[in-house]
Amino acid sequence: MASFKCDIVTPAEKLLTTEAEMVVVPGVEGEMGFLAGHAPLVSALADGEIRLTPAGGGAVQRFEVKGGYVQVTGDKVIILADSAQPVAA
């Protein structure tokens, strides 16, 4: 499956930069999932959980997020969160 770059950024730090196959975020109107080549989009985030499937397989990474925005281009997803932290497996 094709991959894309994903960044999770908070006001305090750049939490993650990785290659992903899929990212699911909590939007204010429900969950949104993104794959490589997704149409450009900017949307507000709700409080909830981000699920990120890394490129090449592996365990899904989970992050708890509190508000913010997501920006999607054809080859990158940027999550600008008010706060975010990894969820223990």
TrEMBL record:
<dbReference type="GO" id="GO:0012505">
    <property type="term" value="C:endomembrane system"/>
</dbReference>
<keyword id="KW-0813">Transport</keyword>
<keyword id="KW-0066">ATP synthesis</keyword>
<comment type="subunit">
    <text>F-type ATPases have 2 components, CF(1) - the catalytic core - and CF(0) - the membrane proton channel. CF(1) has five subunits: alpha(3), beta(3), gamma(1), delta(1), epsilon(1). CF(0) has three main subunits: a, b and c.</text>
</comment>
<keyword id="KW-0406">Ion transport</keyword>
<dbReference type="InterPro" id="IPR036771">
    <property type="entry name" value="ATPsynth_dsu/esu_N"/>
</dbReference>
<protein>
    <recommendedName>
        <fullName>ATP synthase epsilon chain</fullName>
    </recommendedName>
</protein>
<keyword id="KW-1003">Cell membrane</keyword>
<dbReference type="GO" id="GO:0046933">
    <property type="term" value="F:proton-transporting ATP synthase activity, rotational mechanism"/>
</dbReference>
<keyword id="KW-0139">CF(1)</keyword>
<keyword id="KW-0472">Membrane</keyword>
<dbReference type="GO" id="GO:0005886">
    <property type="term" value="C:plasma membrane"/>
</dbReference>
<dbReference type="Pfam" id="PF02823">
    <property type="entry name" value="ATP-synt_DE_N"/>
</dbReference>
<feature type="domain" description="ATP synthase F1 complex delta/epsilon subunit N-terminal">
    <location>
        <begin position="4"/>
        <end position="84"/>
    </location>
</feature>
<dbReference type="GO" id="GO:0045259">
    <property type="term" value="C:proton-transporting ATP synthase complex"/>
</dbReference>
<dbReference type="InterPro" id="IPR020546">
    <property type="entry name" value="ATP_synth_F1_dsu/esu_N"/>
</dbReference>
<comment type="similarity">
    <text>Belongs to the ATPase epsilon chain family.</text>
</comment>
<keyword id="KW-0375">Hydrogen ion transport</keyword>
<dbReference type="InterPro" id="IPR001469">
    <property type="entry name" value="ATP_synth_F1_dsu/esu"/>
</dbReference>
<dbReference type="GO" id="GO:0005524">
    <property type="term" value="F:ATP binding"/>
</dbReference>
<comment type="function">
    <text>Produces ATP from ADP in the presence of a proton gradient across the membrane.</text>
</comment>
